[in-house]
């Protein structure tokens, strides 16, 4: 009597055949078997980004605020969709950011716009405290360089194709289809 591990090892050494591989375009890869592990070469996302429309802040600047006693922060800047945030957020300041937009360096949370008020004089009132990391996705939260995202032998699904596209792959190594004859 053999253990399941011993049986699997026996099958692998005695009955498996080495299949050749080929590279195919992502559009042709659904349902194909992955020929090698796929590891990311870059960060996804490649920058800290907001998950809501609102204001990027230092969470510590909002601690203890409320509707009755809002935190008053200086509006330092605004980041538009598709633009980078290549500056450092100053203390007691905030930066307007859209959903999916880049968050400036130094900011560690984003307050939803529903909990803020623009006073029109360059200051923003924050009526709800933010916790560090709130409403943000940090650089590399999904994928980082070297992380294996798909393993050899996997039958590729549409979700897998999306993941491959997100890391910049346009082709993928798959096992050649068997020819029976």
How would you describe this protein?
This protein is elongated. It is α+β, with helices and mostly antiparallel strands. Strand 8 and strand 9 form a beta hairpin. It has helices spanning 4-14, 158-166; strands at residues 21-25, 38-39, 49-50, 54-57, 71-78, 93-97, 109-112, 116-118, 123-126, 136-137, 148-150, 171-175. The model has no long low-confidence stretch (mean pLDDT 92). The strands form 4 sheets. Strands 7-4-6-5-9-8 form a 6-stranded mixed sheet, with no helix packed on it. It contains 2 helices and 12 strands; from the N terminus they run H-E-E-E-E-E-E-E-E-E-E-E-H-E.
Provide a short characterization of the protein structure.
The protein is 11% helix and 26% strand. The chain has two helices and twelve strands; from the N terminus they run H-E-E-E-E-E-E-E-E-E-E-E-H-E. It has a six-stranded mixed sheet, with no helix packed on it.
